[in-house]
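Reading a protein record of the kind used here takes little practice once its layout is understood. The fold follows as a row of integers, each naming the local backbone shape at the matching residue. With these conventions in mind, the following record can be read line by line:

_____
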Amino acid sequence: MSVPFPIRKECPPGACICDRNALLNDPQADLRILKLTREEEQKLLTRLEALSSLADLKNMESRLHAQLGIRLSITPSIHEVRTLRGISIQVADQPGLCRKTRQNIPTAIRRSLEKNPDIAYAILDAQGLWDGR
């Protein structure tokens, strides 16, 4: 199947579980994720590490979904949140999304939260941390 845009190069056999070939062979498949080449992934990770606010994070979440079909879930743990590890950042499984990319996106967001803890506080506040005052 030919696609009208440059796509991500195939991962080495056995190194990834992205199922890229099955995605390319399915005529009904959503191919947006294949636009995320290695170069574009690096730009995305750099952008995610430079988040400045919760609104910026939410904007990136919506853009990731609209442009690539990537779904992010960022929620505080149901237990006490003592460190940034208590904030769960999940990337939904998606055919065509490389295993390493699935790991790198949360890592980049965590780096951004470490640089700017106000975003982490805003995430906690959005979940009702300070509602019962």
Notes: The chain has a mean pLDDT of 84. The two ends are 58 Å apart (CA to CA).
